[in-house]
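The aim of this short unit is practical: by the end, you should be able to scan a pair of folded records and say something sensible about each. We start with the first protein, listed as its amino acid sequence and then its structure tokens.
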Amino acid sequence: MTYPATTGEFSAAPGHGSRYERSAVIDLDAIRHNVRRLADAASPAKVMAVVKADAYGHGAVPVARAALEAGASWLGVAHISEALALRAAGIDAPLLAWLHTTESNFGAAVAAGVDIGCSGWELDRIVAAAREQERPARIHLKVDTGLGRNGAAVDSWDQLVGEAMDYQDQGLLRVVGIFSHLAVADEPERPETDQQLATFREVLAVAEDAGVDPEVRHLANTPATLSRPDTHFDLVRVGLGIYGLSPFAGQSSAELGLRPAMTLRTLVSQCKEVPDGQGVSYGLHYRTQGDSTLGLIPVGYADGVPRSATGGPVRVAGRTYPVVGRIAMDQMVVDLGRAGLAGADLLGAEAELFGDGADGGPTADDWARAAGTINYEIVTRISPRVPRRFINEKDRSPKASQEKLS
């Protein structure tokens, strides 16, 4: 990563032998492991790895490559711009983008061979783009089976299918897929999933009667992939699971056979002795109970750490401490609990906010509980100011390629 300066450019990467001041470390072997685990659960259905929102904050291009290496057949994103970035990186796998506005660049999607989700209103715009590009568009028709977001209403499904088939007969598009999205699959006891599945089967029958012969029918998300094999059809769309996080309140990642891929860490930037009653951070809502040592952790809500997550865990030198006082834009504080630590070589010690939890350390789920949110949000919101550091990435340099061929 480089940042422009008034006198030119400088590299933001650390020098030889130095450590990143702060980083989100992404273990691509964990991504591969998780994709294989989900592929086993989905078989014989294929896997679409969902890498929208910069792969839930993990880095879309490296994660997409790792997912494909591990057996994913498709990639999925929300926006066409995300799909085009993957194509620009040389990724040519089947790729679906499904959330559009009237300003979306359908022409660029058609030209790049990106499949386009279609809820109805987009159809004429997609066809116009196909005419302009002189190339048939590939579309997936989406139906709203109960989530209440995008997707055609069931009452208008017949009309959408009919119009799409007319355009297909004209050679302007190909109906590649039919899909919908589940609302409560992360709560397996709820009956709405059965209702949505029944509706999906009904609309598939309508499409089949109209002559649609899709390559893929897809409904299942990560929780349904793991708990509802009757929703798998031809393809499952897995997002959270490939990042090693559990979608279920009552089951951990480890219990599901998943490995969290992101570790958020930094270095203690100050360590100082304070007296009894010392206030901490804006508002002084926390005061020390006796003489103590405060550790300054140089990340905050500008780095994507929720401001509301006071009490979130930070591990320093093998012990986990809660954040005290308000989380600020760039920093937060942990109370190390006793005097005498300021001289104990903790300045510059690694501070881990969350990781895979394998050694009992803090996890994204712990931060989600502290912030009153979900683990999806914790990893996705880590800002670009925090450099991503990828480990277990396959060497793609020309030299490495030559070595592999020799």
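Turning to the second protein, read its sequence before its tokens, just as you did above.
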Amino acid sequence: MRAERGTDTEAAAAGPDGGTSRARPAGPAVTALLTSAMAFSMMQLFLLGALGPRLVDEWGISRTALGLTTTAGFGAAALLSPVAGRLVDRVGPRRCLVALLLLAAVSLGLIGAAPGAALLLVAVTLGGLPQALANPATNKVILAAVPSGRRGAVTGLKQSGVQLGAFAAGLPLSLLAAGVGWRGAVWTAAGTAALAAAWAARTLPHDAAAEAPGARPAPSAQGATRRLAVFSLLLGCGIASVNTYLALFGSQRLGLAPTTAAALVAVLGVAGMAGRVGWSRVAGRPGRAEAMPALLAAGAVGAALLLAAAVPVPWLVWVGALAIGSFAVAANAVSMVLVMRRAAPGRAGQDSALVSAGFFAGFAVGPPLFGALVSATGYGPGWLLVAAEFAAAGTVAVPLMARRRGEKR
């Protein structure tokens, strides 16, 4: 077991896992900063989902073309994740978090200036790099500065930052767009990301000198990490389809006003925040984390079926959005708890990046498939596809439960 995951003293101390100099344990300011970094790392994609009806109306792009913006961003993130993981292990999380926030600001600024779909794709592709850096850098800060007993709770809080971004895109920024236009709302987000970069530079401890990685992890640990990557790929396919098309579904199929349809994304975000915080706290307890990916995936299947049922019964869309956040979105945070628990010394960035790459690949593949299916057959079969993707993710995660029982013996 020591080869599968670093000891608590190794992980809690700054060094190969954390990559920051020895400092006092992380306080509320650092936790808030990590949460903000996660929010901005994916803000551009949540904004595209929430503002999708306005973009479709202004530029006349198709549902499939809108899905390709998500493919560009997450495809870049998936390809860059292995490099980003090694970079974080080598140069340290502080530098990478500051770079993440600055790149997010540039990407958002370019989206706000885009005259059409072509530059929009370029901007979203650039936004893939902040996404690739996010989990490796924030996870290493947690391993460096947070005692082992609190890591599950802090991980849930910082992972909830992604859903905080969804909430910001779905409600306050959408309301701002209704008043000053969607470009003004996106530029406001860009300015806020730049301010967060300055905050990170002032708040985080300086990075320590890079240290050599520890012993190569045991094959069983590598197998679990790869399984989590496949689980995350399938999970990402379903979540990305919901993120990208939920507001458009509400607007085009259920007849909701654009601002009301965007509020669906806000509901998804709030539920995802609560789910990630709550379930990650549970996963931080001994013997709980390994069973949870499969169980949360099962709940996500039911949530996707609720969205399919909303085609004839429209009010169910609100229940479905709430359930997607509570189960599907929360499952990704639990994956990060498992990654940090099993990471060998000096490899937390690389292991986090591998699992993140699977998740991002799912985000790249899922929306175009969903958009093409919806264009051909309608939203009902599209939501059934999402349910099937969640079911496959749960099947992949089941052996993790058996692995935990075997370790106990």
